[in-house]
Amino acid sequence: MKSHDGYPCFRIVDLVSTLHSFEKEFRRAISLHDINQLYNSCQMEGVTVNSEKFREPMVWIGVYVAVASFFCILAMVADLLHGFQNKKFWFPCKYFSLNAASITVITVTMKLTVDVSGEMPSYVDQAAKLGSLGFMCTMMANLMPSLASMDNKTLLANVIGLSILVLTMIVNVCIQLNTRVIDRYPYDGTNISYMDFAIVAYIYTAIIILLLIIMISSSLTIPASKEILESKYQATHKIHLANQRHIRMSIVEKLRHNVTRYWVMAETGSPQFVMAINPLSTASAIICALSLLVTLNLVRASPLTSSWHRRLIRYESPYEWTTSAIFITQSIGVVVGTIAPILRCFSVFNYKLVITKWNRNHFMFFKVEKYWTQKLHEWKQSPILFLLSSPRLRNLVCNAKNTILSFCIGFQKGIVASCKLIWLIAITIPLLAITCFYHLKSLKARWFTPPNSPRTDDIDIDVRNYVLQIDVEMELAEKTLKGISKSINFFISKAEMEQNNNLLELLEKSTGFKGVEIFDSDHVQPLLCVEHVNSWSLPIVTLTCIAVALRDIHKHAVQNLFKSVGEGLSYTHLVEESLNCASEYVILRKASVGLWHEVENNCRWLDIPLAKKEFKGKTTIEIIKWFSDKAKEIVTEIKESTNGELVENPSKTLIAANSMYRITQTILLRSQSNKEPITKKQLFAHLNGMIADIFSACFTNIPRVITMRCHESVIEKREESVKVAAKLLGKTTKIIERLETCEVPSMDADKMAYVDEWRLYLMQSIP
Question: What dihedral do alpha carbons 47, 53, 54, 60 form, nearest 10°?
């Protein structure tokens, strides 16, 4: 009589109740108590059926948890591979970093841990629940360097978010221990050996609390560390600028010199690098290794490791078989995720760590430098923001604040000293081995090396002056410094192989900067009451449109022009983005980007095909005049729609049409002085020359852009910015070398960034 909805059972109760009311013989056989018992049984059956329905989606939730865990593992592996690929063995966090998205995904992976109501009686169920805690330990250790990659406000928000999650987990684990959801010995005939899960839960909880304390302690240190690094960076930057005045070398060599030195500053002064090599990070890695041992013990005792026991596994939790998937996935995550934190411990060997060169300060682990507690001291000395009317209450609040912060300062010093001790113990054995190797190498050099053999592997002494570090007593190892220098040379060399040959061919057609002056003319009657300024990219795109529209030009020549302009515009937009920052230039750049996208992909100018059939058979002047009339028509329509009022943010159509009108009118005015009509091939060559001249003038700003990219003001973005500068230098080396042979006007550097200033200078220079 069972049914999914339970109604047939209640119908039987109704029938029995009716018979009980009218049949005396029936009343003698069945009492009211029996009917009530039957009714209660029906209710219990309904509850069971409903609970089974509620259990159905739990399997999909388990799959969701396993998938979320898999994505976390992928991110950690990506950071590991990124570190190996770039030879950054402190493994900076690029893909798996602390932010709102990662906290959300981590919360999903902890679903089993925070589930206080679901029964999980079997070994695999309990192991999956506690294995999530081990996975959390691993993720926290991996997230340590990412704390240094964000600004102070973001750091505060993310650490608070992670702390809330961790504290919620700890409270839930304590509740489950009290309610025996986490049982001590859940032996069900499948586990290979007994496992006290309560003790495992306590160990994991203690590890997570320690890691959270270390993360909070590190967060308090990061702002002060960044201030020290920034101060040293600015001081070194000023010295570098002063030294640059006395260096005489080619522009390319000078740029290489700059990029290398700024790269050394960016790498050694990287907040993530400093974070990864400090004692707190080492301590978190050692603690993470302990959680790995506990997880491996869970895996060893699991029935999943035995083919015979695997057949006896019973999935009694609502998550069913997904608990095995979660346990296996997160156990793999613990093993793989522990690699990066452990290897970060050895990043301290990026410094010269030979005992003979150490002083006693390295062994004074109880000495806590000022920057570890600087932020707490600032909070202690800062006044209370809210005002209290009562002096007694105000004094009470101030005293409470000072007492709490004094305790926090003492606690912070204790944490730092403890982590320094762990750090010292962790590196002692490797340090002794390195010292022995150092002495053996010295003896070998003394006995077998000729006395006057020259050393060819010494690092440039000047580069060492650009190393930024908080602890001045630890000198960066020569091998590490060489690696940093080689890495930036690799970026430059790799970029040099991506030279833009089509663009270089186009630049060969430039005979100077005459095209900058003649692409526009002051004699053209303006269509707008206030004319737009000129940008570098917009006239280039407009001239290209005219060149493409010319008939009877060899297809190969047109394709080469397309490729050349496409390659050149990438650098032109970079120059504009870096040097033309005013809003009017930003509008022009966006308009030229959109216009070029339309030309390159659809071969259209403002939705008008550039290969129009109407152009066939027309003369060069007729084609130019058609573009001029069409552009004038578009501008006039837009003016009429706005009643002639000045538009604050002109549309792409208005900007493109006005540019086309002025350029075509300039060509028509200059063609009037020609004795013979200009042919299409002549005009095509003339347009190529003007485009090449504008590119050449624009590219004189590339060295300045590279220098600006080297000197990034935001410390978190500095490393990536210098890398962009290195790649730009590599790609434009031949362009810069070519321009170095040209007679560049002796203009002010700020004025060279604007095409209108070039036109004004060139027009004034005409005798």
Answer: 160
